[in-house]
Amino acid sequence: MKPKYYVATWDVKKGMFTPEKGVRTGPYSLWGLRNAIRKLRECGYPCNYSSKISGGGDPSVSIWRV
């Protein structure tokens, strides 16, 4: 079974990660995840990949694999 990916953005008012308007949470294939990241970048999120490696990245976007 192929892994599925999910995305959410940080909601300051709710204090938790929630779906971004116009971008569904998932599940995504790897190809679909790339499209979701593209949409999030259009919404103004940087969506850097370096967050786990160097401690940088975008803390307001959560991407996880199941």
What is shown here, in short?
It contains 2 helices and 3 strands, in the order E-E-H-H-E. With 66 residues, the protein is an alpha+beta fold. A 3-stranded antiparallel beta sheet has the order 2-1-3, with helices on one face.
Structure, explained:
This protein has 66 residues and is an alpha+beta fold. It has one domain. The chain has two helices and three strands. The chain has helices at residues 30-42, 51-54; strands spanning 5-11, 16-18, 61-65. It has a three-stranded antiparallel β-sheet, covered by helices on one side. A hairpin with a 4-residue loop joins β1 and β2. The chain is globular. The termini are close together. The mean pLDDT is 86.
Strand content: 15-25%
Q: Which whole number gives the mean pLDDT?
A: 86
How many domains in all? 1
What does the overall shape look like? globular
Oligomer: single chain
What secondary-structure arrangement, pairings included, does this model have?
Blueprint: E1 5-11, E2 16-18, H1 30-42, H2 51-54, E3 61-65
Antiparallel strand pairs: 1-2, 1-3
List its salient traits:
23% strand; 66 residues; 2 helices; globular; three-stranded antiparallel sheet; alpha+beta
